[in-house]
Amino acid sequence: MSQSIVHASMLIRRGPAEIFDAFVNPDMLCRFWLDAELTCEFHDGDATRVAIACSGFPGDDLVAQATNNVEGFTIVLCDLKTLLESGRSANLVRDKAELITRQMALAG
């Protein structure tokens, strides 16, 4: 049985070194969050294509898990893009986490 893999990517208008630093610098990393395989490739000019891949989804609901992961990765990449291109986080990750926490509290 082959593993299913989901992908997400975002064009961020900064160079690979600045994007890499955002992932390895703890001060930058705490301004957004990501835990997955990550690649950065040069794109025209000073832009970089950032790609994330995640595999090994457990359980039966593969589509829901993959969809949730892609949604999460996309939110993280959008927040990183906003932070690096404007200097300010849009708090997308934090706000999504708040919604998830609230939903879990209501369900529990």
> Taking strands numbered 1, 2, ... along the chain, how are they ordered across the largest sheet?
1-3-2
- Number of folding domains? 1
**What's the CATH first level?**
Alpha Beta
- Cα gyration radius (Å): 15 Å
| CATH overall fold name | Alpha-D-Glucose-1,6-Bisphosphate, Chain A, domain 4
Helical proportion?
Answer: 40-55%
Commentary on this structure:
- This protein has 108 residues and is an alpha+beta fold.
- The protein has a single domain, classed as 2-Layer Sandwich (Alpha-D-Glucose-1,6-Bisphosphate, Chain A, domain 4), CATH 3.30.530.
- The protein is built from four helices and three strands.
- The protein has a three-stranded antiparallel β-sheet, with helices on one face.
- Strand 2 and strand 3 form a beta hairpin.
- It is globular.
- It starts with a strand and ends with a helix.
